[in-house]
Write a structure and sequence with these properties.
alpha+beta, about 35% strand
Length: about 140
């Protein structure tokens, strides 16, 4: 009986110990639909598996739309020189990226340009060596 209980406990714990599934770039984003938006930072989420930047952008009708841009993982962003205070609410940024295949007002950020002209890599899963190349898949 104790052997059966031990096996049952092991099977129940296995999913929690296994790594979480992760999407490939091409499963969620369309490399044939690049986008560049300038807007005001409303929030920076420093969370795994991907950090996110939210910006308010005025559309062609004058309506303010909040956009959600996926960045790389926080650990990777820190290796690139970012930290959770790199962007603050109210800053103006221009983000180049690729539209989501699934959601509206969602994109994967490739680069983020700050108001002072500095451009920083966003840690995207897209291979930045050439827009014509296939994006790198993340597992």
């Amino acid at each position: 009986m104790s052997r059966s209980l031990a096996l049952l406990a092991l099977l129940a714990a296995a999913p929690a110990a296994a790594p979480l599934a992760h999407h490939a770039f091409s499963a969620e984003y369309d490399r044939n639909k690049p986008i560049t938006l300038t807007g005001t930072v409303t929030r920076l989420e420093w969370t795994n598996p991907h950090a996110r930047i939210y910006i308010d952008v005025e559309d062609e009708d004058g309506n303010v739309v909040n956009w959600d841009f996926e960045l790389g993982p926080p650990n990777g962003l820190m290796r690139l020189g970012w930290n959770r205070n790199s962007l603050r609410e109210g800053q103006i940024v221009t983000i180049d990226g690729f539209l989501s295949r699934i959601d509206t007002n969602v994109a994967n950020a490739r680069t983020v340009r700050l108001a002072d002209g500095r451009q920083v890599f966003a840690g995207s899963s897209f291979d930045t060596s050439s827009a014509a190349e296939e994006p790198a898949d993340t597992q």
